Amino acid sequence: MVSLLTEFGPEVLFYSFLIAIFAGIIKGLVGLGMPTVLISGLSTILSPEWALAGLIVPTLVTNGVQALRQGRRAAYASVVRFRYFLIYGGFALVISAQFTRILPHNLFLLLIGLSVSVFAIVQLAGLKFTIRTHSKKSAASFGLTAGLVGGISGVWGPPTVAYLTALGTEKKEQLRVQGVIYGLGAMVLFFAHLGSGILNAKTILFSIFLVVPSLLGMWCGSRMNDRIDQSIFRTLTLLILTVAGLNLILRALLG
């Protein structure tokens, strides 16, 4: 803590603390959005490297909590139910990641941002796209799509949530499945940036510092989630998807 005060000063740490609480509230409420909120908020007061390092440990911890909130059996049951989505998505992610240096990164961000935004806005307008049956074929198709996008752009959250929302997944199970998927991704991110040097002796302390406010915010968001019904949860999720999609479009256009 003393080293962080020396590095940043109390004001920066205080604002970082508040940003992490807000990110946790969004995470607890709809199950996604923490990396987006953290990277956007922290980047306004810190360098990109510190902002990226800051989100890694809180994202890993909160996804673990989210996945296991109803216990290990419930988490395992969700993994079994969505196993084809996870298997095909993971396979596509690993393969497509090899092409990141060949294919235009901004183009894929733009395409997925447009598709996610249009999907969410159309749903909010009352024109519902639904998947009536949770079949192996539909799970594999959407898993491949999400994995393809994730491997190329590093963003697989919005397509995953779009699929779960179209399927009409009950909110508790949706949060569990998101926690499992994002948790696996966060684990890969953690080890990748240990190797890249983004996570080092200094930055990992800052990332760990943000765990407590992130969990506090997540607890508040979870209490709010417990008090809303399925339709309100769906609307909030679609609103967050819209913001996430527009954020991808902005990132693509700004380069």
- Shape assignment: globular
Assess the beta-strand content as a share of residues: under 5%
Distance between the termini: 35 Å
**Rg measurement, Å:** 18 Å
- Number of helical stretches of at least 4 residues: 13
| Structural class by sheet pairing and helices | mainly alpha
Q: Helix fraction?
A: over 70%
Average the pLDDT over all residues and give the rounded result: 79
Q: What are the low-pLDDT stretches, counting only 5+ consecutive residues below 50?
A: none
Which series of helices and strands comes N to C? HHHHHHHHHHHHH
Q: Major beta sheet, specifics?
A: none
Report the strand count.
0
Description:
It is a single chain. With 255 residues, the chain is mainly α. It has helices at 2-8, 10-30, 34-42, 48-67, 72-81, 83-96, 105-124, 136-153, 157-166, 171-196, 203-209, 211-226, 230-254. The radius of gyration is 18 Å and the shape is globular.
